[in-house]
Design brief:
The complex is a heterodimer. By secondary structure, chain A is an all-beta fold. Chain A has strands spanning 4-7, 10-14, 19-25, 32-37, 43-49, 55-58, 61-65, 71-76, 85-92, 100-102, 106-111. The relative contact order of chain A is 0.33. By secondary structure, chain B is mainly β. Helix content of chain B is 0%, strand content 52%. The chains are: A mainly beta, B mainly beta. Chains A and B meet through strand 5 and strand 9 of A and strand 4, strand 5 and strand 10 of B.
């Protein structure tokens, strides 16, 4: 079945450093979504990318969708303690766009 | 709007006991989902529903049953709980269509001893 891999699994950074998480799908995706889950919380939708090579920014967060629509990345510039949490990418199932396949997530710790 | 709510928030079961988790949404979403989240394994889909009266299996459906008798509610049942079902369960919902985001409930932390 479809697989969505994320690396790294864990990342510790000093406050102010940059952070990047990478997402790779075994199949071509029609779109990719990113979610953030704070410790003890639930996943919250951040953004969706649809077009090949698309780049979107949300303040210090930059999201990219690969040209082949099989990979994506999330880059955070100058991390803050409020960025702490787990970041998940998710893509529609090939067999049914009604379902999402989630990556295993990258857990970000920001040290003050 | 309350969004997506889940009941209960916490539960401890003994092996073999049964229970039902309730998910409710007030956003008039057509699609609803049940996920389980285990450390290091992300979110895995258990069952989902694309409308009232319809359900379908996800990636890990064994040991669970679901029902969607009303559009706003999605129930997840464990008939005979096992320690392997210890997990955090999230419900989510979204509008139909190819690319709408999912809205998640706060989760239910279940421990089976």
């Amino acid at each position: 079945g479809q697989q969505v891999m994320q690396i790294p699994q864990y990342q510790h950074v000093q406050e102010g450093e940059d952070f990047t998480t990478y997402c790779n799908s075994s199949t071509t995706l029609s779109n990719i979504q990113w979610y953030k889950q704070r410790p003890g919380g639930h996943p919250v939708f951040l953004i969706q990318l649809v077009k090949s090579g698309e780049v979107k920014k949300q303040k210090r967060l930059t999201f990219q969708f690969g040209e082949a629509k099989k990979n994506s990345s999330l880059h955070i510039t100058a991390t803050q303690t409020t960025d702490v949490g787990t970041y998940f990418c998710a893509g529609p199932e090939v067999s049914s766009a009604r379902q999402l396949t989630f990556g295993s997530g990258t857990q970000l710790t920001v040290l003050p | 709007n309350a969004g997506v709510t889940q009941t209960p928030k916490f539960r401890v079961l003994k092996t073999g006991q049964s229970m039902t988790l309730l998910c409710a949404q007030d956003m008039n979403h057509e699609y609803m989902y049940w996920y389980r989240q285990d450390p290091g394994m992300g979110l895995r889909l258990i069952h989902y529903s694309v409308g009232e009266g319809t359900t379908a299996k996800g990636e890990v459906p064994d040991g669970y049953n679901v029902s969607r008798l009303k559009k706003q509610n999605f129930l997840l049942g464990l008939e005979s709980a096992a320690p392997s079902q210890t997990s955090v369960y999230f419900c989510a919902s979204r509008f139909s269509g190819p690319s709408y985001e999912q809205y998640f409930g706060p989760g239910t932390r279940l421990t089976v001893t």
